[in-house]
Records
---
Amino acid sequence: MMGIRRKMAIAAAFGLLGGCMAPLPIAMAPPPPLQMPDNLDAGHADMARMSAVARVLSDDRLMGRAPGGPGEQGAVDYLIAQFREAGLAPAGENGSWVQAVPLVHTQLSGPVVASVRHQGSTRPLTWGSDYSLNTSVPAAEARIADAPLVFVGYGVSAAERGWDDFKGADLKGKVLLMLVNDPDFEAVAGDDSDGRFGGIAMTYYGRWVYKFEEAARQGAAGVLIIHQSDAAGYGWQVASGGARGENFSLDLLPGAPRPPVLQGWIQGPVAAGIVKSAGFDLDILKRAARRKDFRPVDLHTTFSASSPVSVERIASQNVLGKLDGRSRPNEFVSFGGHWDAHGVGKPDAQGRTIRAGALDDALGLAAMIEVARRFVAGPRPERSLLFTAWTAEESGLLGSEYYAQHPTVPLAKMVANLTFDTLQPNGATNDVVLIGKGQSEMETVLAEEAAKQGRSVSIEGHPERGLFFRADHFSLAKRGVPVLLSMALAGAYDMKAGGRAAGEQWLSDFTANCYHQPCDAWSPTWNLDGAQQEADLFFAIGERLANGRAWPRWLPASEFAKVRAASDAERH
């Protein structure tokens, strides 16, 4: 195997890692395709090329790759050039490389005034330090005036788990105060919720996306999720970060409930203070929320907030490429990653404002492109391969969700999806991390192919973060497609240099300081041996599936098994 130093030297010789990178035109023609030797590390993803692709995608001139932002077209054009150079064919709309994704971009555009009122006493709330809100309602103003504030526990309605936090209460026009994660996150022996939601592992009911959706189904005017770092899986700087009051959404499907006027997060201590002023104790309410007989608690407090809203409709883009299968071209193995990042934010300690998403997910896309190159260079597989670069993942998996609503290939004929999202740059590992244990037969395939690399399988170290529900593969999983996710945020790798302690140190530092922040930037010091392992592993899994006849199944306990079973006849 070629050493990383030799690879970096080769890359530098091609002007990829030094200061001589050609200027990157934005929203114009893409830069020339990377000219790299074709015989580097035959049988492996090429690390120098992965680094070079990630560097271009995280260049400051792409302004953080925000959907609809000044860097979108440059990023999309560059990806098309890479797909084309890899040897893929276009798989978008009307023979093109792209699928248009119509997004509604809303932003609270003026002073946001918010307060709570109890028994004639008004407490102003401070944006950023106390709360963070956005809206997905395309109106000129977002306003909630003296709406009753109701504590609804974890905000979960899950009949199949025998759980209902709402008990038929009339919550129309009210603001729901709810806990993050799901009812057994902090459960102890004797609590009704203990083990009912999978223990410490977060279910979809713990995700903020679900909670906003459920608030809409309840007819709420607003929703405030109480932030708690361990329960959310990230700190307040992530929950409150981003452009002030910005949101992206898809147009509502016919018959869908209207979303809350305002939705977002409130700091845990701030929420505890509001609850205390109303005569309650948040810790006692949290314990009550772990009982089946919990009912919504009227805090006899009202919430008010208002802000002008700017509304714009954006035609963003998914980038799609394919390699047609030799004998079963109507059966597909798909690979994915997201091209968007978080655009421009507030300055960090070094004055940097561009959140370039170099690891999340420029490097993941670079790995996917390497997988495509290897497939094109080798014997054509029996089944077809689909390669997808999604938009608006950071805004709620919107690009992949739109694709799932408007697929270009039948999802019933999609064998599996393998998604790259946030690879680590610290060297080779002794293991691979499984995200979503107990979901599908894909975990057996993962273990068998990882063993051929000399790697074992570790279960995700932070299941409470709900990462199975936080990447683009989930949009396809909800439609029954078996999935695997490669994501370095799922738990500490057992690093060949430094062991699990080194893996945990990097994960803690990255999550606390760089996740969705400007310091997630490309670096010439990256050691991509581990990223190469992940790319090679997904290539091997894809090759096995693309040349076989198996249709991996969901395990009987999975919530997606029934969805897949409904389309069995189309596969057999």
---
Amino acid sequence: MTIRRTLGLSAAALAGALLAAPTPAEACGGFFCNRQAIDQSGENILFVYNDDGTVSTVVQIFYQGPSEEFAWILPVPAEPEVSVGTDALFQQLGAATRPRFTTTTVVEGECRSEPTCWDSRYDTDDGPFAGESGAADAGAMRPPDDGVDVVQRANVGPFDVAVLRSGDADALRTWLTDNGYLIPEEAGAELDHYVELEHYFVALRLQKDRDTGEIQPIVLRSSNDEPCIPIRLTRIAATPDMPVRAYFLAEQRARPMNYMLVNPDFDRFELYTGELSYTELVNTTVDDAGGHAFVTDYAGDVPALSLELDSIEDLRDEDDPAAFLQALQSRGFNGDSQLLGILMRHLPPPEGYEAQTFYNCLTQGWCRDPEVDAHLEAIGFAPSDLVDDLNEAIVEPRTEAQTMLESRSTLTRLFTTLSPDEMDEDPMFVLSDELEREFSNVHEATTRVECGPEYFYWTAPRTLELPSGRSRVLDEGVAYYGSDDEYCEDRYGGDFHPGMPTERLREVARTRGTSPGGGGLCSVTAGTSSSRAALGGLSLLGLALLGFVWRRRRDRA
């Protein structure tokens, strides 16, 4: 959903591209050649249980549209302190804890060594292993019976932030409308619900000089110790089976309080063969539980992540923009949309230069000419001001995120999918010492390869064995009794190689006989598979040459 001065319903309601993918740079090695994409599927939220009894909530925000039309609001149970976070936190947490279904290959017996064929075109990319692949005191600060209480108003990172409270839903809607928030009619009842619960409302707008590329997660710290996801507002703009990921940093494992915690059936061959995706499995599991349920993706030790960046205070005196950018790159700064937005404010590119290309060429030094130097001199370069902005938007949020990770011992990642008709109750969460602390995100099966002298590695029978012990034949295998020369002839002609349909491989194999004897099988030497392959390659070179000459003569006949 594209938000056009519209009430921001949650992170998911603003799902969309932060910035279009960059056009290819004229040369790689700069900041913006290979940017890491942000996972924009669904809603990502992190809850951190702090030592002082407060909870910090980090919400990732996605938005597509003009910067002047960005508007976002989130209901929260208690008055929060507001700061900004970093997308790098969710990128690294997501990569470290995503569920993975992997297979370990066990080779039983010894396969026939694959001969070295004269024509090497078929042995570059498709060798024998190709394709393996406590709630706050509500009476402490009662809202007025009518009107809106603006509890906080400040610039935080790129945002103009207002924290609101009201006992009158109509008055709240009027304030939001007067301040540029267009509230969909269908949001009225849900907004009334949170007003009745005496929630606070965190309303965000971009500051006038900020671009959508500078949007970053928002961090809310409050005394409410029962975190929840305000999903009811999300239903207005949600898509069917919308993914929701919730992370928890604490000393214990977390679980939902008013939703079920269910366990998917991981004893499924299709999860390891790619016939069934993990999200599809969760969809079915959650639907079977009535739509109000979460599954555990991961629980255990907090992954060792590296978010913190080196200090850039020494760059306040670096008045050469190229040297400044080179120093940033060497210290681990990523060429993402956030950095791009900051650079465009401090170092606008010359006319005719695409911004990303300009910063890449400055970093690499291949576009320093009199015209560019004149442009840089004309716009001026204030390195100290740029350091201030980089510290506020990137360095400090990443340092704080690293501190969050290191402050707790246990991470829980919960996952669900929700459709609009299921978003009628906000999920709440608690810590639990009744659950086992460890729940791995890595699920491993075994692929058994049944080797023998009639099989090459990639033609041998394969069986998939699940952790439960259940097994299924993946491939019955194709026996090939032809000689080494015949194999090279088939390989050279494109009739027998990895990736061919099994039935076609069997058809070719049948033309080469049905029992071993002669050819390559006699030339295979004893020893390990690696030594056999090496010795076989040397001893068969002459045979391959003879086979090549024979084919040439036969072709001329």
